[in-house]
Amino acid sequence: MPVNNKQNGAGSGILKKLKNLFGMNIGTMLFGVLFIYMLFSMILYLTSSNIESYLVIAGPLSRNETYTGLAVREETVHKAETSGYVNYYAREGSKINANGVVYGISSSKKTEGTTELSNEELSSIRSQLQSFSKGFNASKFNTTYSFKYNLEGSILQYAGVTGGTSSTSSVVTYGNQTLSKAEQDGIVLYSMDGYENKSVSSLSTEDFDQNAYHETDLKTQNSVSAGDSLYTLISDENWSLMIPLSAKQAAKLADRSTVRVKFLKDDMTQTGDFSIVEIDGSKYGKIDFNKGVIRYAADRFLEIELVTNTVTGLKIPLSSIVTKEFYLIPSKYSTKNEDSQDIGFMVQGKDNKDSLSFVKASIYASIEEDAADNADKPEDQKSYIYYVDKKSFAEGDVIVSQKDQSKYVVSDVGVLEGVYCINQGYAVFRRIEILDQNEEYAIASKSTSYGLSRYDHIVRNADKVNEEEILY
Questions:
Q1: Are residues 441 and 317 in contact, defined by beta-carbon separation less than 8 angstroms?
Q2: All residues at 6 or more sequence positions from 281 whose CB lies less than 8 Å from its CB, including other chains
């Protein structure tokens, strides 16, 4: 059969013109498909509601407020009885008993004294050396000097340090030293800052100015004169911490008689008696403690946190919380599917009253029906009210108990607070029990049955949710 070259030429010419017009090739086609897809996706994004996700975390409703407290203690500055060079025998910041040697003064820097120690006393000294060696930190080399004083004090204690003078005297001699003993139990500090004679009643607003605070180091290698300050002794376990309060803070704490304090220096906490006092027309919180003074003996100002937000749980935005209606069905009408062991109810047929069909129930909460009646019953005999998804039943459905053939007509409705969980990419209602809330967030219980868990993803803007919609 002859070929019509004229027709073929015409057809080829049309294709060639189209190809030249649109530049059709595989690259152009792929670009066109991608452009259409992007355009379609943009239209969907602009016309659909945007769901915001929120990661559930655990914690208090808000952070506890921090304060800078001024420590007020029972303190006395002790002065040198004679002139000379000082040897320290008590470790700074450590507790010393009454009649314990604090320091010695001699006419020269080099002091001599001999004594013979027993094997038991030598063993105790070795034990102290080993303990210090294990806990030594090169970045805190100054502790070496404190340990030196403490060790020398122990040796003097073993030696008796009486020198023929009554051991109850505050000053005794040993070798060519005049030793000074503590007159009462206390904590030794080799510094002073001018607050030693202050009490809560004598404080002024200027005392809280940290920029004007100055501490004097009393340790010296030089000769001292009689009457020079040598050490401070904290003689009482009871102490107070004073914190400045704004009007708002004072109003918030007005009803408290005790408060738990977290010391930011070492993250230790303890509870103290709380009261509000007025100094020069300003409000101050007064926190009284009966222990812990030795931990902060060297600190006049302490950074603290008042642990007032004690309610903790799952932190949830208020915008995530919704209410939802459920049918209320007593648990005694529930049964289990023989094959799957799913919990559900036997529903009576509407046309055939003798036919029963198993309907699996989506239970969102179980509340005790009668707490007083349940009190003495074992767990498997207690009665509950199930909050069942309304999609599973219709109002007027008749449920038949498999235990006694009694019937229950579905009609009662209850409401639960909850959020939409989207861990699986679609919205699932989860019940919450609110423990506390403010203007933005609520704290929900961690132990709610059929509820949330930490690190669940929930919808932040719950008003835009359709439970039937796949979110992502």
A1: yes
A2: none
